[in-house]
Amino acid sequence: MFYNLRLVYITTKDKQEAKSIGKKLVKENLAACVNIIDGMETIYRWEGEIVEDTEAILIAKTPYHNVRDLTKRVKDLHSYECPCIISLQLSEQEGNKEYQKWLLKNSQKQEIDYEVEDV
């Protein structure tokens, strides 16, 4: 069975912002789980200048059908004018099928029965 799962990579100004956004995404069933990595060093160009800063990474795990709403919600909650929100497709042929089933079940607004095929 093909689930079309995604990791959504998001950068935030700090751990507190990542935690605040992440909790809302999970509470609203836009993501089954989020991971936060604090202290990332970043170098980027903004308005013609090179900027060096530290940020936190927020990684949300969700099915593809949630990505549009998740992106909109992150933009609404984020402090940045142009936040980094990038969806990465996962290969469902590899990995823990039980975890994939759990991810789907915990990122649905309504209860849906999913079956997982053994590989």
Chart the SSEs and their pairings.
Layout: E1 5-12, H1 15-27, E2 33-46, E3 49-63, H2 67-77, E4 85-89, H3 97-105
Short description:
Helices cover 28% and strands 35% of the residues. The chain has helices at residues 15-27, 67-77, 97-105, and strands at residues 5-12, 33-46, 49-63, 85-89. A hairpin with a 2-residue loop joins strand 2 and strand 3 (49-63).
Distance between the termini: 10 Å
Structural class: alpha+beta
The level 1 CATH classification is Alpha Beta
Q: Which spans of ≥5 residues are poorly predicted at pLDDT below 50?
A: 111-119
What is the CATH topology descriptor?
Alpha-Beta Plaits
Task: Write up what this structure looks like.
The protein is an alpha+beta fold and 119 residues long. It has one domain: Alpha-Beta Plaits (2-Layer Sandwich), CATH 3.30.70.120. It has 3 helices and 4 strands, in the order E-H-E-E-H-E-H. It has a 4-stranded antiparallel β-sheet. The longest helix has 13 residues. It is elongated and about 45 Å long.
